Amino acid sequence: MTPLHPKAVVLLSGGLDSTVTAALAQQDGHRIHCVTVSYGQRHCVEIERAQAVAKALGAAGHVVVTVDLRAIGGSALTADVEVPKDRAQEERAGKIPITYVPARNTIFLSLALAYAETLDAQVIYFGANVLDYSGYPDCRPDFIRAFETVARLGTKMGVEGRTVEIRAPLLMLSKAEIIRRGQDLRVPFQLTHSCYDPGLEGVACGRCDSCLIRREGFRQAGVVDPVPYAIL
Question: Domain spanning 7-193: which superfamily?
Fold first, then answer.
């Protein structure tokens, strides 16, 4: 018998996109079980925000998995490399940015897949978006479909015929559209964190690519962003 509220695993970073994604999973009728990855990111405040978001949404489960990607480095988020600031949209639309973390979504989805197997959940949600972060290769539709193949071939669930679907409901939405969708769902935007280079108190810098994209999205959506910024 199919459960009335099937389980779904949600990759929850504590950011705006993953929070809206979690709310959409609930709207789809799922009981959400969230996975947050503490990977040595400089913006580790997002882990606390993820815990607050999971609680606010009433998640059925929430695990924090630690993976030290600083041992690998290769990104401004996991190494002593300066985070780009004050970049124009044209610059952000260029080559793959230094904030790209090597194979991050592959690693994260693998952890979510492992959690899904323990729960016998056949859906994984994550907040990938190709419009605002077109330079990130692990946010493309082809990557998502390929990972579904990996899930089918490399898990006990898959071998037994219980396939895992990867859903990225925000994939083709603009930031403003994501914010409007979140507003309709009464998402707790005040709990979310998007900044790549926050201050000691966790206050968003207001100048990194992620802050600029978020702030512009709120302006375009006509919605007040409830989080504080160091630079107004």
Answer: HUPs (3.40.50.620)
